[in-house]
Amino acid sequence: MSTNTQVETISTGADKAKLAASVVLVLGAITAFYLLNGKDMWMRVAVLLVLLAMAAGTFFVSDMGKRLIAYGQESVREVRKVVWPTPKEAGQMTLYVFIFVVLMALFLWLTDVTLSWILYDLILGWKH
User: Fold this and answer.
1) Does 73 lie in the same domain as 101?
2) Are residues 61 and 8 in the same domain?
3) Matching NCBIfam families, A to Z (predicted)?
Protein backbone atom coordinates (compact mmCIF):
# COMPACT_ATOMS: atom_id res chain seq x y z
CA MET A 1 0.00 0.00 0.00
CA SER A 2 1.61 3.19 -1.16
CA THR A 3 0.60 6.57 0.16
CA ASN A 4 1.25 9.50 -2.09
CA THR A 5 2.04 12.38 0.22
CA GLN A 6 2.76 15.74 -1.30
CA VAL A 7 4.83 18.28 0.52
CA GLU A 8 3.85 21.85 -0.21
CA THR A 9 6.79 24.18 -0.45
CA ILE A 10 7.06 27.91 -0.88
CA SER A 11 9.02 28.43 -4.05
CA THR A 12 10.32 31.98 -4.04
CA GLY A 13 12.01 34.15 -1.49
CA ALA A 14 9.44 36.87 -2.12
CA ASP A 15 6.63 34.53 -1.09
CA LYS A 16 8.52 33.57 2.04
CA ALA A 17 8.96 37.26 2.85
CA LYS A 18 5.25 37.95 2.28
CA LEU A 19 4.22 35.10 4.56
CA ALA A 20 6.73 36.17 7.20
CA ALA A 21 5.43 39.74 6.98
CA SER A 22 1.89 38.45 7.44
CA VAL A 23 2.88 36.56 10.57
CA VAL A 24 4.74 39.60 11.93
CA LEU A 25 1.73 41.82 11.26
CA VAL A 26 -0.63 39.41 13.07
CA LEU A 27 1.71 39.23 16.04
CA GLY A 28 2.12 43.01 15.92
CA ALA A 29 -1.65 43.47 15.90
CA ILE A 30 -2.07 41.33 18.99
CA THR A 31 0.86 43.01 20.74
CA ALA A 32 -0.39 46.52 19.88
CA PHE A 33 -3.84 45.66 21.19
CA TYR A 34 -2.42 44.78 24.59
CA LEU A 35 0.19 47.55 24.67
CA LEU A 36 -2.53 50.15 24.13
CA ASN A 37 -4.22 49.01 27.34
CA GLY A 38 -4.64 52.56 28.71
CA LYS A 39 -6.25 53.91 25.53
CA ASP A 40 -9.89 53.87 24.50
CA MET A 41 -11.27 50.54 23.35
CA TRP A 42 -12.24 51.88 19.92
CA MET A 43 -8.61 52.89 19.30
CA ARG A 44 -7.31 49.48 20.37
CA VAL A 45 -9.82 47.67 18.16
CA ALA A 46 -9.13 50.02 15.22
CA VAL A 47 -5.37 49.37 15.42
CA LEU A 48 -6.02 45.64 15.72
CA LEU A 49 -8.33 45.58 12.69
CA VAL A 50 -6.03 47.73 10.54
CA LEU A 51 -3.01 45.55 11.24
CA LEU A 52 -5.01 42.34 10.70
CA ALA A 53 -6.31 43.73 7.38
CA MET A 54 -2.74 44.52 6.36
CA ALA A 55 -1.71 40.97 7.30
CA ALA A 56 -4.57 39.51 5.27
CA GLY A 57 -3.71 41.71 2.29
CA THR A 58 -0.07 40.68 2.47
CA PHE A 59 -1.05 37.01 2.68
CA PHE A 60 -3.44 37.18 -0.26
CA VAL A 61 -0.86 38.67 -2.62
CA SER A 62 1.49 35.75 -1.95
CA ASP A 63 1.38 32.59 -4.06
CA MET A 64 -0.24 30.62 -1.25
CA GLY A 65 -2.92 33.29 -0.85
CA LYS A 66 -3.63 33.32 -4.56
CA ARG A 67 -3.99 29.54 -4.52
CA LEU A 68 -6.38 29.81 -1.55
CA ILE A 69 -8.51 32.32 -3.45
CA ALA A 70 -8.51 30.05 -6.53
CA TYR A 71 -9.53 27.10 -4.35
CA GLY A 72 -12.44 29.11 -2.92
CA GLN A 73 -13.59 30.17 -6.37
CA GLU A 74 -13.42 26.58 -7.63
CA SER A 75 -15.40 25.42 -4.59
CA VAL A 76 -18.13 27.96 -5.34
CA ARG A 77 -18.27 26.75 -8.96
CA GLU A 78 -18.61 23.15 -7.81
CA VAL A 79 -21.39 24.01 -5.34
CA ARG A 80 -23.30 25.70 -8.15
CA LYS A 81 -23.16 22.43 -10.14
CA VAL A 82 -24.91 20.49 -7.38
CA VAL A 83 -28.50 19.53 -8.09
CA TRP A 84 -30.26 20.36 -4.83
CA PRO A 85 -33.44 18.43 -3.91
CA THR A 86 -36.79 20.17 -3.96
CA PRO A 87 -38.52 20.71 -0.61
CA LYS A 88 -40.88 17.84 -1.44
CA GLU A 89 -37.97 15.49 -2.18
CA ALA A 90 -36.16 16.57 0.98
CA GLY A 91 -39.29 15.90 3.04
CA GLN A 92 -39.74 12.48 1.48
CA MET A 93 -36.13 11.50 2.14
CA THR A 94 -36.44 12.70 5.74
CA LEU A 95 -39.54 10.53 6.15
CA TYR A 96 -37.72 7.53 4.66
CA VAL A 97 -34.83 7.97 7.05
CA PHE A 98 -37.19 8.32 10.02
CA ILE A 99 -39.09 5.16 9.06
CA PHE A 100 -35.81 3.26 8.59
CA VAL A 101 -34.56 4.36 12.02
CA VAL A 102 -37.80 3.23 13.69
CA LEU A 103 -37.73 -0.14 11.89
CA MET A 104 -34.06 -0.65 12.78
CA ALA A 105 -34.78 0.18 16.43
CA LEU A 106 -37.61 -2.37 16.47
CA PHE A 107 -35.37 -4.99 14.84
CA LEU A 108 -32.58 -4.43 17.35
CA TRP A 109 -35.05 -4.51 20.27
CA LEU A 110 -36.57 -7.78 19.02
CA THR A 111 -33.09 -9.25 18.52
CA ASP A 112 -32.10 -8.24 22.05
CA VAL A 113 -35.26 -9.70 23.58
CA THR A 114 -34.94 -12.92 21.58
CA LEU A 115 -31.27 -13.45 22.44
CA SER A 116 -31.98 -12.64 26.07
CA TRP A 117 -34.80 -15.20 26.14
CA ILE A 118 -32.67 -17.86 24.41
CA LEU A 119 -29.65 -17.30 26.63
CA TYR A 120 -31.25 -16.78 30.02
CA ASP A 121 -34.48 -18.79 29.82
CA LEU A 122 -33.63 -21.71 27.56
CA ILE A 123 -29.89 -22.25 27.99
CA LEU A 124 -29.23 -21.11 31.57
CA GLY A 125 -32.70 -21.70 32.92
CA TRP A 126 -32.92 -18.35 34.70
CA LYS A 127 -36.43 -16.97 34.86
CA HIS A 128 -36.94 -13.22 34.94
Assistant:
1) no
2) yes
3) PRK05740.1-1, secE_bact
CB 64 within 8 A of CB 75: no
pTM, entire model? 0.56
Pairwise CA distance, residues 43 & 55, whole Å: 18
Distance CA 113, CA 107 (A): 10
CA 73 to centroid of chain Cα atoms? 17
Report the C-alpha gap between 98 and 106 in whole angstroms. 12
pLDDT tens for the 128 residues of the chain, in order? 556 666 556 568 888 999 999 999 999 999 999 999 988 999 999 999 999 999 999 999 999 999 999 999 999 999 999 998 999 999 999 999 999 999 999 999 999 999 999 988 888 877 65
Same domain assignment for residues 31 and 65: yes
Q: What is the dihedral of CA 121, 122, 124, 128, to 10 degrees?
A: 0
Q: What is the C-alpha separation between 106 and 124, in angstroms, rounded?
A: 25
Do 117 and 77 share a structural domain? no
Nearest C-alpha neighbor of 56 from the set 14, 21, 9, 8: 21
